[in-house]
Design a protein that fits this description.
- The chain has one domain.
- The chain is 84% helix and 0% strand.
- The protein is built from seven helices and no strands.
- Helix 1 packs antiparallel against helix 2, helix 1 packs across helix 5 and helix 4 packs antiparallel against helix 5.
- The relative contact order is 0.11.
Length: 171
C-alpha cells in the first residue's frame, strides 16, 4: 500500500511540475516565435526597399532618357509594400514602418499623376528618391541591412549617400 501512495504522490507531483513548466515556458516560446517573425518581416521589408530603390533609379533613367514610364512599374513597387503589411501587428512594431509608410504615400502620389504630365511625375519621383535617401541619412533605414540585398544600383546609391553624409557632417 505504501508503494501505491508513493506512485500516486509522485504522479501528481510530476503532473503539477509539468503543468507549471508548460505554463512558464509558453510566453518564452511565443516571444521567440514573434522575434523570429519580426526578423523575417524586417528582412522582407529591407529586400523590398532595395528593390523599390532600384525601381526608382530605373524610372529616373527612363524619365531622363525621354522614354517615360508606365504605371505597371509603380504597381510592382506597391505590391511589395502590400505584401509587407500582411501582418499588421508585427509590421507596426518595426521601427522602420513609419518611413516605409511615408515612402508608400509618395509612391501613391507618383502613381496618381497623369501619364501625360511627365514633368510633375519626374518631380514626384525625385521627391521619393530624396525621401528614401533622407531616411538612410537619418538612420530610419539601416544601411547594414540594406547591404544584405545588395545590387549594383543600390551599392552605387548607398555610396553616394555616404559621401553626401560625410560632406554634410564635415561642415
Amino acid at each position: 500500500m505504501e508503494d501505491i501512495s508513493k506512485i500516486i504522490v509522485g504522479s501528481a507531483a510530476g503532473a503539477l511540475g509539468g503543468f507549471i513548466v508548460g505554463v512558464l515556458t509558453e510566453p518564452i516560446r511565443i516571444w521567440f516565435r514573434n522575434a523570429n517573425d519580426r526578423t523575417r518581416l524586417r528582412n522582407l521589408v529591407y529586400r523590398d526597399l532595395a528593390l523599390i530603390y532600384e525601381d526608382m533609379i530605373w524610372l529616373k533613367y527612363l524619365a531622363a532618357s525621354g522614354k517615360g514610364f508606365s504605371d505597371a512599374n509603380l504597381e510592382t513597387a506597391s505590391g511589395r509594400y502590400d505584401a509587407a503589411q500582411r501582418d499588421q501587428v508585427l509590421y507596426c512594431e518595426l521601427p522602420e514602418s513609419v518611413s516605409v509608410d511615408i515612402l508608400h504615400e509618395r509612391l501613391m502620389a507618383l502613381a496618381a499623376q497623369p501619364q501625360g504630365n511627365m514633368s510633375r511625375r519626374e518631380e514626384k519621383l525625385d521627391e521619393m528618391i530624396a525621401a528614401f535617401e533622407s531616411a538612410i541619412l537619418h538612420g530610419s533605414f539601416k544601411v547594414r541591412r540594406l547591404r544584405k540585398f545588395r545590387t549594383k544600383t543600390l551599392s552605387t546609391g548607398l555610396e553616394a549617400i555616404r559621401r553626401q553624409y560625410l560632406k554634410v557632417s564635415a561642415q
